[in-house]
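[Q] Does anyone have a clean structure-token version of this?
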Amino acid sequence: MSSGALSPPPGAPPTPKPMLSPPPPPAASPGGTSLAKTLTPAANRLRGLNLGGDAAKRPISVVIFGATGDLAKKKLYPALYQLMLLGQLPRKDINVVGFGRRDVDLGPFVAKQCANVKRDPRLPFADFEARLSFVGGGGYDKAAGFEKLAAHLEAIEGEAPCDRLFFLSVPPTVFGAVAQLVSAHCRAPCGYTRLIIEKPFGRDAASFAELDAQTSGCFDESELFRIDHYLGKEVVLNLFSLRFANQLFEPTWNAESVESVEITFKEDIGTMGRGGYFDGFGIIRDIMQNHLLQVFVLCAMEPPASKAPADVQAAKVALLEKVAVLDVRDAFLGQFTEDAFFEEAGYLDDPGVPDDSVTPTFAAVVLRVDNDRWRGVPFLMKAGKGLDERLAEVRVRYKAQPYNALLVDSKSARNELVCRIQPDEALYLKTHTKKPGLTHECVPTCMDMRYSSEFERAYLADAYERMFLNAAKGDSSLFVSAPELVEAWRIFTPLLHAIDGRRPRPVLYPFGARNPAGFRAWSLEKAGVKQRPSFMEHLATLAGDVGSLRACFDRHDADKDGVLSKAEVRDLARDLYDGRDCPDKSLRKFLQVARGFELKERITFKDFCYFARCAKAAFGAKPRSYQPPICSEK
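[A] Here you go.
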């Protein structure tokens, strides 16, 4: 690792040419000794950081490498516009410079591409366009292009001191070259120079070490901001406050009270033509090793000594050091296939994916922490594409209460806390309440707090807005440090090497499934976590029993007219879901197909049996236990 991340020894002289904002002239003490000499080296370094709210309003140039890419169009330019609108970045003393291989007129390009930017009369979009410019450098590894960029920055900044923030939205293969050329040619003469690096941070432990050596050789760790945008999401950030600011949760946030923690990421879309890129990484590198691991860290870390970035990052590293490495035998791997019933293509149908690809589009692992707080508690982490719904959440399952005479069914006496990250940010707390009536039956109830209603007038910032602002302030607490990544890759590299080398065959699942076949049994065996089947999986289990189908149908045919309306179908789905609403994609598709058959949202028993047979053909009978993936030759 870079020695630049370490503090100099006590008594060492300050760096002659600071890379951060120059500190104010040191105040002299009564004895004639400057204040700088009385401070520790760490304190001297902090004096150059812009941690205050006003510090982000200093003149600043933001340079975006990969200026015409998807991320820049959809997230980066809108984030900068919103920060200027909110007054968090200066409206006049800011320059937004795009850098790419060929020249582009950036103003009209951004105006055309950023249709999702919320316009506001307080900051006409034309004013934002006026701050945009572009430099065509011919390539990310050519010094001439960076010399041209340096001359452009000098011309638009003038003689006033100006900070510089560089965002690398480029392939990781050019991270090192860009960092070295920025350091050599484009450092701010007066003010800080900082580098924001977008994932992926390598493919394994060795590639990250190589990448880190390239960047840390020319930038101090305090100048590097490795971004994981999940750390900027509102609900993810709230995990910190929820845990440590509430007496209700902190005393029970441990192995004594918690049975399991489940961290879920699901997408109801496939690779959408990007299969060639995805196939080189897979779901573990794309989602699990970074986004979900950061969520896990916030769920499981110990309270940091303070809110200072160094203390927060130290607490994260201390947790990761206690996590055991992962092995392919402890992972569940899946890959979605085409589904004729839903008319969705499979992963191998993507033009960029090789016909023999075994890259997982679904993966689940169980993390275990060897410390006093969490020893014995499984952290089930799963991520997948081509599933039944779009969802990201954390589900904390508490242990069941001991038998209580007030409870009719003691098995139901367990609490759950759900932190919904997307969509529709929310917090849910499953509690138990006496059922109204003459009995003393206790039933599960749900207390919920939806951000859209609780904070109706509050501004919910996009993750990239928060990341840009914190980088401008020099606050690295929401960014990923090099020691964190060393530990993250230590945990995942053995699993990834086993997948790359042994090529285990993933379990195939139809597009739109709630989970792959066998996952429920695996989850129960490995983590003690029960998974709910989807609506179509429920129908698949009923398909072979006409009597059960008839009973289910008749129970929801309120008018006894032999047909089910759309509302009655939803009631049926809710019944199959143990009284819970069924929002998943399979129910929506079920209703869409029904309308496609011109049933006018009224389904007969014959139609119902047909759909059940289709469900059985698509989802099949689930094996009782999960068989480890079979390895094939390369």
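[Q] Thanks! Anything notable?
[A] The chain has three domains: 54-198, 232-510, 533-619.
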